[in-house]
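README, section 4: Worked example with a bound small molecule

Sections 1 through 3 covered apo chains. Here we extend the same pipeline to holo records, where the ligand is supplied as SMILES alongside the sequence. The molecule in this example is fe (ii) ion. Nothing else about the input changes; the structure line simply encodes the ligand pose together with the chain.
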Amino acid sequence: MQNSVNNTFKILAIGDIVGRPGREILKDRLQGIMDTHRIDLVVANGENSAGGKSITPDILHELFSIGVDVITTGNHVWDNKEVFKILDSEPALLRPANYPPGVKGHGWHIVERKGFRTCVINLQGRLFMEPIDCPFRKFDALYDELKDKADIIIIDFHAEATSEKRAFGWHVDGRASAVFGTHTHVQTADEEILGGGTGYISDLGMTGSFNSVIGINKEYSVRRFLTFTRVKFEVAEGNRKINAAVFEINKEGKAQSVTRIIT
Ligand SMILES: [Fe+2]
Ligand SMILES: [Fe+2]
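The generated complex, written as structure tokens:
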């Protein structure tokens, strides 16, 4: 429901869901989080939701059924061929918008709810990642196209380097209502409202098993760093948590609060 007391719109952004442990804890706790924080819209990064690698049609619909409204992704979206069946046909499934022209899928989606038109944009950084098109200039082009179609613009900026994420936050400050980083699977404690009114956090963190190395079996991960050979890939079990943030946006499209969640 709209937060009638403050006349604001509250968005829950959920960090990368890793495999079945991430999906199961979200199923158990999402409704409670939504009720506690009076959430109006839920965005979740699903790039690792299918066994750590991408997303499938069944998992997409499972996440929609528990209350997720828009699913963003990142570099791992290409890791399961099942995703190619839904990249074009599911409007609320996004892949980073700055992949080169001709790549399947789409990078933004608008949801109209409670009198607010919210545009979710997915972009990906380039530092220590694939050298795809410039996310900064892609945002500029999308902003020109979308600014009159949406009251609220929020961005999942999927990137490795905090420097690139911070720079992107300042680049869009005053134009976007919120920027949240994903991809590192480690939540940062730098949530703030930038000078122009953009809510910001460098990384939301991860939703999955924390008895792990970023959601993956820790023994295999250690072995990989010891040997630099191909080692089995397996989603970890144990110590499940949800990492997320709540952005409260006012009628002018400015962030009023940013609240980190670890539960
Ligand atoms: Fe991820
Ligand atoms: Fe990623």
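What to look for in the output: The chain has one domain: 9-209+240-262. Residues 212 and 218 are 5 Å apart (CA to CA).

Section 5 describes how to batch many such records.
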